[in-house]
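Researcher: Please predict.
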Amino acid sequence: MAVFARPRQAFVIAGVLGLALSATACGTGGNDSDSKADSPECAPYEKYQGHDGKEVSIYASIREVEADLLEQSWKQFTDCTGITIDYEGNAEFEAQLPVRVDGGNAPDITFLPQPGLLKRFADAGKLKGVGADTKAMAEQNYPADWLKYATVNGTLYGAPLGSNVKSFVWYSPKTFKEKGWTVPTTWDQLIALSDQIAASGTKPWCAGIESGDATGWPATDWIEDLMLRTQTPEVYDQWTSHGIPFNDPRVAEALDRAGTILKNEKYVNGGFGGVKSILTTSFQEGGQPIVDGKCALHRQASFYANQWPKNAKVAEDGDVFAFYFPAIDPAKGKPVLGGGEFVAAFTDRPEVQAVQTYLASGEHANSRAKLGNWVSANNKLDIANVANPIDKLSVQILQDKSSIFRFDGSDLMPAAVGAGTFWKGMVDWINGKDTATVLQGIEGSWPK
C-alpha cells in the first residue's frame, strides 16, 4: 500500500506544460515534417499516438515523493502523445474511491492496491475489462500468478504497476556494528536479539499504525507475515478466501505470535512510549527513531525506503538498511509477503486504453525504476536500472524461485473486511482487546 500525497493542481499544471513541450519535442502542433513519428525520442511511443489533446484522469493513494516520481516517469509519454494525465493522490483513497464511484464521479483510471476492492467493482459492473493491447502487454510482461489477482470470472481488469516486498525488518548497520549485534536469520535469533537489546536499556522495536482512514493497516501486515510463518501457504490461501473462519485457532496463533513483539512493553515503542503509542504514531514516522538510536528494529515494506531522511544512507553499510523478516522454520521455505497496485479503468475511451497499455509496458517500468525507490514484477524491468539497494534486494526476492510469495492478505479479502474490520480490529487489539474477541468480531463481519 502506498500512501503519499501531492496537490492535484500541480499535476494539472504539469499536464498543460507537457502539452506545450510536446508541441516542440514531438510535433503535437507542428507540420508534417516535424511529426511525432519522425522524432527519435518519441519513436517508442508511436503506437500510443493519435490522441493529441485528450485528457485521462487517474486517482490513487500514491502521494508526495512517489507522486513526483510517477509524474516524471510518464512525462516522455505525455510529451510524445499529447495526452494530459490529470493525477490526484489522496490520503483517504480507500474510503473515498467507493464514494466517488457509487456517486457517478469515477476517475478514468485508478491504481488499486486491493484485489478485493477490484473484485467488488468488477462484480458491480463498474470496471471495464482491459483492451486487447493491454491484455497482450500484461500477459507478455507479468507472471500469471500476478495477473490472477486482477482477474474476475475470467476477465482481466488491470495489469500490475508497482510491487513491494513487505517481509523486511529495517535496522541501522552502523548501530549494529557499534553494538556488536548480529542480523538474525531465524525467528529464535530475532527474539534473542530483541531480548539482548532490551536488556541494554533500549526498546528494540518501534512501530506506528496511524494512517488516517486507513489506520491499522501496518498491523495487518504483521499478522499476514506471521500467518505465512506459522502456517502453510495453503492455509494462508484458505484464510484470505474464508476457506477457514477468521477466528480459527491457527489465525489466533499468528496474532498471538505477533503480540509477543507488538504488545510487549519491554519491546515497544522505542522513541515514542509504550504499546498504545503505536496507535497514535503515523506509519511514516514509525521507524524514524532508528536513525536517532532510540530503537533498533522496524518491520515495514520495501517502500519505506522513501521515508528516511534524505541525508540517511540506505545501504548494507549505511545508516539504515533492511534484512529479510526471518522464517520460524527455515527448512520449510522462505515465505515472502508482498503487494502492489493494479491499473484498472472505469472508462474505455481509446486514450484511456492507451495509458493503460503504456503503464503495463517495459518502457514505463524501466522509466520509473531509473528514478529510484520503486520495484515491479514486470519481467522487462532491467535490474541494472534499479539503483537503490533495497529495491535490488526486493527484485532479487521477487525473482527468487525458492521464495514462497503471497499477496497481502487484507488486500485479497472483501473490502469490508480487509480495508475495514481487519484494520479496525488491529486498532482494538493494540488498544488492549483480547485476541478471541477481536477475531470473532472480524469473522462476524465477513460478507455472507
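Model: The radius of gyration is 22 Å.
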